[in-house]
Design brief:
By secondary structure, the protein is mainly alpha-helical. 68% of the residues lie in helices and 1% in strands. It has a two-stranded antiparallel ribbon with strand order 1-2.
């Protein structure tokens, strides 16, 4: 049973019974169901902005919002009103249609992800059989929206900022997609609801913690969160791709980022931490929403903590970390998980379909996969340790020449 279907099956007959045309009643019922699913993230983001500001203030020894409303709770509403009432400016020479459509598409791509996230055993927008593929495809639309914003602004700085953002986002989509293959293999399905159901006996993070870590890091980079917050880099790119946007169009980009962070936390929990799975959820399905919210809040707070404590990396470090580290590790992890799954099946240790809820039946498979992940992690850490040692030896080599770096005014300094 699904949220939209419940509304359609309940509201449409009521409207038709009051004399409304059956086709029109069906259309209105579908529209109401879609609006309820899509409005939820936009309402939640108002509270999330307040949470992020207050958390950042505590980390940085500040007060945060505390004037507008009790505890500053209405500050976000005041900011929204300010953005709505600000003058809407479109640069001369800009492609107006694409310029105005970009922020809408950026928010829409994030909201569409919510359509396949299961919130409880019976509450899900649409339980697509290709839910994971839907998430990857729809999430990529935001990258297109950023490119549209930079190109249509008729500003070279906006275009350069968009180029850098697209390069980063497309790059980090590779390890993210590779890490998503792991829960798909473990569940034998791309349906998000099926993936959650298969974690009743054992969460997938136990079977492959490496995939969960890679997914979390990749999504941090996808949303431009520290230490990967190079999407704007206002000190370098005059705010980047959105420099020409003002008013509510800028606010849409802003809202889309916050919704995306929460969405990534929901997806991480759904794919690796059991989603809505929890005690008594079969008897009281609405408890699944509570369990999912609590789990997602933990990773959302972790994302906030990283943003406010970890320094920004350089763009070359960001890209090198992706292609030289994350992608190779993700590929090795996929090969390892696939191999170990075959070993488990050959040994007859894989749980039968009717044992999916049995913790004891899932334990042998979980132990084998977990030990395999630990082995890969140990090898990777040792390789990183060796690289660090070699780098230090080169830097500490006696008599090593220090290359001068030319300054703009003809001066040079050693580094």
């Amino acid at each position: 049973m699904q949220v939209c279907e419940n509304i359609i099956n309940t509201l449409a007959p009521c409207l038709a019974a009051n004399g409304m045309d059956a086709g029109l009643a069906q259309f209105i019922a579908i529209l109401v169901g879609v609006l309820l699913v899509t409005m939820a993230p936009l309402i939640v983001v108002i509270f999330l902005i307040w949470v992020e500001r207050k958390y950042a203030a505590r980390v940085q020894d500040r007060l945060g919002p505390n004037r507008v409303g009790p505890y500053g709770l209405l500050q976000t509403f005041a900011d929204a009103i300010k953005l709505i009432t600000k003058e809407d400016i479109t640069p001369a020479g800009a492609d107006k249609a694409i310029f105005n459509a970009a922020p809408i598409i950026a928010v829409m791509s994030v909201i569409l992800m919510w359509g396949v996230i299961p919130f409880s055993p019976i509450h899900v927008g649409v339980d697509l059989s290709i839910g994971v593929l839907w998430f990857i495809a729809v999430g990529s639309i935001a990258t297109l929206a950023i490119m549209m914003a930079g190109w249509s602004s008729n500003n070279k700085y906006a275009l350069l900022g968009a180029f850098r953002v697209v390069a980063a986002l497309v790059s980090y989509e590779v390890p993210m997609a590779l890490s998503l293959i792991v829960p798909v293999m473990l569940a034998g399905s791309m349906s998000m609801q099926e993936i959650v159901n298969d974690q009743r006996g054992m969460w997938f993070v136990v079977l492959s913690p490496l995939a969960a870590i890679i997914f979390f890091i990749s999504t941090q980079a996808e949303t431009g969160r520290a230490p990967f917050d190079l999407i704007e880099a206002e000190s370098e790119l005059v705010a980047g791709y959105n420099i020409e946007y003002s008013g509510m169009k800028f606010g849409l980009f802003f809202a889309g980022e916050f919704v995306h962070v929460l969405t990534n936390a929901l997806l991480l929990v759904t794919l690796f931490f059991g989603g809505w799975v929890g005690p008594a959820v079969d008897q009281v399905p609405i408890l699944g929403v509570l369990y999912l919210t609590i789990k997602s809040s933990i990773f959302y707070i972790l994302s906030l903590h990283l943003r406010n404590t970890v320094p920004r990396v350089r763009i070359d470090q960001m890209m090198g970390f992706n292609w030289k580290f994350l992608v190779p590790v993700a590929i090795v992890n996929i090969i390892l998980v696939a191999f170990l799954l075959k070993v488990v099946q050959a040994l007859g240790l894989a749980p039968a379909p009717e044992q999916v809820n049995d913790f004891a039946a899932n334990l042998p498979q979980a132990i084998i996969l977990f030990v395999g992940n630990l082995a890969v992690t140990a090898v990777v850490m040792q390789m990183l340790r060796n690289v660090g040692r070699r780098s230090r030896k080169v830097e500490e080599e006696p008599g090593r020449m220090i290359e001068p770096v030319a300054e703009p005014h003809g001066m040079s300094v050693a580094h």
